[in-house]
Model the fold of this input.
Amino acid sequence: MDKTRLGRGLVTQRISMWFVAAWFSSAVTALIFGLLFTFYISTAKTINLVRQNFKIYASLPENGMQVSENIEKTDARAKIIENFFKGYNAPLFEFANEFVTVADKYQLDYRLLPAIAMQESNGGKKVIEDSKNPFGYGVYGGSVLKFDSFADAIERVGKALREDYLNKGLTKPGQIMAKYTPPSIALGGPWAKGVSIFMEELR
Done:
């Protein structure tokens, strides 16, 4: 029995020593590896550049887009007039550009002719038959001034307003009314009031 116990004790002792030795070796190895790795990552390194075969912007077109510094200005007046007449379902909306052209040609407020047209004919909806006269211009009793087209009326009435009214100091709706439609004065000036309201809508 004593020999058996002694043998078992020796075996246990050897296993314990082997375990301690293995643990110590592992710990020393890990420590050495850690020190080497720390030294490696803390040391400055030189990186050699490798020439690449691709271009960063290769997907862009060969001729680059040119950005112009010029800003095109558009005249909003024609659109304002067009929308104004469309709001009343008036046929004169198709002649918005003509109104602007004539206004510039004769130095008129671009709102004046459209406002008179609305006051006189609801924007061309109530025109004397075959007259193409949406302005009520030259209409006195049985006398009716006729035009070939709405465009012709815009041109000729615009010219008349410049020569027979504005050039003679009649520039405001109330002043124009006194010559354009004198009967409106006795009624309290509804013509001038209507034209003024429509001109405000065209701002």
Remarks:
- The mean pLDDT is 82.
- The chain has two domains: 1-38, 77-201.
